[in-house]
Design a protein that fits this description.
5-stranded mixed β-sheet
Length: 760
């Protein structure tokens, strides 16, 4: 909600169509620290004049640190935890996120591509090329962004075509793990007031795990057309397509008490660990079998088209953003610690319309409407071997409509007051079946057809729908304390609709609601050479949604599932501080510090007792949790109240030093060192000791040569000097510890290489 809560600076709500936001840079000039222009509040504005909590990552920084996936953003944004889980990009900001690993779970951090919301996190990674900037908004975005943004938002903005110009670039990167990246862009003039831009990127890389998983094989293209049709009318059209192949994400699989290694599920050495495990098989007799390496594969295809049409009218600037996207997935992955077939198709259509008044009014307004429609059909089948295969065959549909407004009153030339309101209507439906079969049925070959496993009488049958409505609001005040000092305070609310999961009895969850309080300041001193920003925040959540692996009820008894629970109440408060100092015209240093105190105030849920299934007395197998648990009526009541939220380290910090050495004829050398500290965190909602990740650091270094006139450049880099195995997400089997198997995704190891780029 910082974008929704913030008061407006004395700038236009929507830039005039002939203006193009300046590219954010991360260097310095003789005039001081450079300005960064962002559009996080649906208008162009200086980041230092925006009364919101937002971090901006420039194209240059993405290139220098070899960031080509969403999960790599963790290295440059302290408040962000990002990981790749089974081909899905998972985001947490300030401890708030969601394991949206199937079409009937929703993320809590919205990902937007060129202003268009991307509903499914499978289609994210292929977009990190020819980027203008990435904006990370921290905290709920209830008014301007709306759905699925209670934790924040990640905005990726690609480069727009330059009007009437011919230019472009070609780039390459080669590094360890046989990494080869090729990218480029060609900008063609379409008369003096038009431009066409074609951009591409290919990436090939061997796997980070010994079984070849966690590799990269992507092909991405983007075509953009921009035209200033009249002085008052402009249009920007973008079409993109991306395909991801290879073996897909990997996992470190380990029995209890061992240290994670980058073996992967298909590594014979890892498979051998399980041959003599004392496993209690729940449904089917048998033994753990080695995993054929040839089976792991992914084939994700995503593409879409969007337009941004801007017209200046007598009553204000009208902006229309229609969009259509498709996603196709055909994956056979092991990153959950077992085989997982994940197949499906998704389509989404959206339209946003905004009308903004001119910026020379004492009372300014922004009025908008939003429509979104999504349909998905999918098959998922985890083959846990130890407990059989559970297949889900279902269709999910979502429709939502919203109306929003924002009014800004300039009480004086230094004081502004903002009020905002948003009404949201959302309808969700789920129609599907779920069934189980014997273990290892998927090892015969990749792929799975509908109802291969689901019997004539499935374990779970669901055909249901619900409608959710909400009104969100915000009030903000900002004050210019000086020519380069801003103080702001905001209060507002956010909303995330409820939904469904597969369970025969309790199979739905309620909406998530949040109220946010923010007090912040942004300052520059000493002729713009010192920048100091700070913000304190308090978030109060009701019915926060938490998706996790657990046992659920079925017609045939308890089976493994992926339910979403509502946390009764939770509280987050903390501090974020940032400083940059231009020591000399060529030496820039900076640091960011984040403190987050996050707690589930009231959080309990039910889990079936599996002991009778094994012929054991009730309670013989303890609940799969480190929280308090009590057994009654064949159900464990698990109480995690008072626990710190998982994926929420108390302390994180970033620091950097950048030295520029000017050479003859305008050439230069730029040396940079960046480091990140992250405190300990829970990486699973089970709160077992095995799922606690200790504190860690990551250090990246780069050395860049820029030729005269920046015609070409070359960079040598090393990322993650420490080369430690750091967990992303941990999954325990739903009946752990009866089946003592733990799996964890790992962040990338040390990587190094060279980059080169030629500009024309």
């Amino acid at each position: 909600m910082p974008a929704a809560l913030s008061a407006a600076s004395a700038q236009t709500l929507v830039p005039p169509p002939e203006s193009t936001p300046a590219s954010p840079t991360d260097g310095a000039t003789t005039d001081g620290i450079q300005d960064i222009v962002v559009t996080a509040q649906r208008r162009s504005e200086n980041l230092q004049r925006a009364a919101i909590s937002v971090s901006a990552v420039s194209s240059d920084q993405l290139t220098r640190q070899s960031i080509t996936t969403a999960s790599a953003l963790t290295a440059v944004v302290p408040a962000l935890q990002a990981s790749d889980q089974g081909g899905y990009s998972v985001f947490y900001i300030r401890g708030v996120g969601s394991l949206a690993l199937n079409p009937f779970t929703e993320p809590a951090v919205a990902f937007n591509l060129n202003g268009v919301y991307i509903a499914r996190p499978n289609g994210v990674n292929g977009q990190f090329f020819d980027v203008e900037r990435v904006e990370v908004l921290k905290g709920p975005q209830g008014t301007l962004y709306g759905r699925n943004a209670t934790g924040g938002a990640v905005n990726l903005l690609s480069r727009k075509p330059d009007l009437g110009e011919f230019n472009g670039y070609l780039g390459t990167q080669y590094g360890n793990y046989d990494t080869l990246v090729l990218n480029g862009a060609l900008n063609l003039p379409m008369g003096p007031d038009g431009g066409l831009r074609l951009a591409f990127q290919t990436e090939d890389r061997d796997g980070y795990y010994r079984d070849g998983t966690d590799d990269a094989k992507t092909r991405s293209f983007r075509l953009s057309m921009r035209s200033q049709l009249t002085p008052d009318l402009s249009v920007n059209i973008v079409g993109d397509y991306s395909k991801a192949g290879g073996r897909g994400p990997g996992v470190a699989l380990l029995p209890l008490g061992t240290t994670p290694v980058r073996g992967g599920l298909g590594d014979p050495a890892v498979a051998a660990l399980f041959q003599n495990l004392p496993i209690n098989f729940l449904l089917f007799p048998g033994a753990a079998t080695p995993i054929p390496q040839r089976l792991a594969r992914i084939e994700n295809k995503t593409g879409g088209v969007m337009a941004e049409i801007t017209a200046v009218t007598p009553v204000g600037t009208l902006t229309l953003v229609p969009a259509y996207r498709e996603l196709s997935i055909d994956n056979f992955v092991t990153s959950t610690g077992y085989f997982l077939v994940d197949q499906g198709e998704q389509r989404q259509t959206s339209l946003e319309a905004r009308l903004a008044s001119d910026d020379d009014r004492t009372i300014r307004y922004l009025l908008g409407g939003y429509y979104f429609k999504e349909s998905s059909s999918f098959i998922t089948a985890p083959d846990a071997q130890f407990a059989g295969v559970i297949q889900t065959d279902a269709s999910v549909a979502t429709k939502t409509a919203a109306a929003f407004s924002q009014i800004i009153v300039a009480a004086s030339d230094r004081l502004r007051i903002t009020g905002g309101l948003r009404y949201t209507w959302e309808r969700k439906s789920l129609d599907g079946v779920n069934g189980s079969g014997p273990p290892a049925v998927l090892t015969s070959g990749p792929g799975l057809d509908p109802l291969v496993i689901v019997p004539a009488v499935p374990s779970i049958i669901i055909n249901t729908s619900r409608v959710f409505e909400a009104v969100n609001w915000k009030i903000g005040v900002e004050f210019d304390a000086g020519p380069s000092s801003l103080v702001y305070a905001n209060v507002g609310t956010g909303f995330k609709a409820g939904g469904f999961f597969f369970s025969q009895t309790r199979n739905s969850y309620e909406p998530e609601k949040v109220t946010s309080y923010v007090l912040g300041t942004k300052n520059r001193f000493f002729d713009r050479r010192l920048q100091l920003n700070a913000e304190i925040f308090l978030l109060k959540y009701r019915d926060q949604q938490l998706a996790h692996l657990a046992l659920v009820d079925s017609l045939t008894g308890p089976i493994s599932g992926f339910p979403t629970e509502n946390v009764g109440r939770s509280t987050i408060y903390g501090l974020e501080a940032e400083a940059q100092y231009l020591v000399t015209r060529s030496l820039l240093v900076g640091a960011q510090l984040n403190y987050v105190h996050s707690r589930y105030d009231s959080y309990s849920y039910l889990s079936p007792d599996i002991s009778p299934l094994l012929g054991l007395p009730p309670g013989a197998i303890p609940a799969n949790t480190g929280c308090r648990s009590t057994l009654a009526g064949g159900q464990y009541t698990i109480d995690c109240s008072g626990r710190r939220m998982f994926q929420s380290p108390t302390w994180t910090a970033n620091g950097f030093i950048r030295q520029t050495v000017d050479l003859a004829e305008g050439a230069s050398i730029v040396a940079e060192v960046r480091t990140r500290f992250e405190g300990s965190r829970w990486v699973s909602e089970s709160y077992l000791a095995e799922t606690r990740s200790g504190s860690n650091t990551r250090t990246d270094v780069s050395l860049t040569y820029n030729a005269p006139d920046k015609r070409w450049s070359a960079t040598a880099y090393v990322n993650n000097l420490e080369n430690k195995n750091v967990s992303g997400n941990v999954f325990l089997h739903a009946v752990y510890p009866a089946i003592p198997v733990i799996s964890t995704t790992l962040r990338p190891p040390r990587t190094y290489g060279i980059q080169a780029r030629y500009n024309f």
